[in-house]
Give the backbone structure.
Amino acid sequence: MDREAEEWSVDDLLHNSYSACRIQLPAEGGGAFVIEATAQWSVLTVDSMNDPKFAKSWRQLNDQVFVESETGQPSMELLVTCGVPGAAAGQEAGLPLQMAVADPGLAVDQRQVLLSTFARTLVDELSCAGDPVIPAQLLR
């Protein structure tokens, strides 16, 4: 992910998605219950969060973090400004970090705890400039 950010340019819209964690648990009656955490550099920008099209579904938590409001889907997404040392100027706002937790049956409060913990861990691992603060409580 560091290399992708370092090689980023304003016109770059192709970003890889990474499955950071996938847990498969047996479900009642057979089958499986899967929880997956993913991360990627977003095609959205921090400025796009002001666009009415995105402002309806994304809510700003602080000056560095946005959460996608509950969409009725069994998932939750977070957008975080994450400047990578050595990247082009503007990378932090033009290429924010987007993380998601998807699952078929967790309660919303469990999903937000997983996403918040995952986001804090990844932000630390990437050594994001500006030390983004990921709140434990994503939804109010």
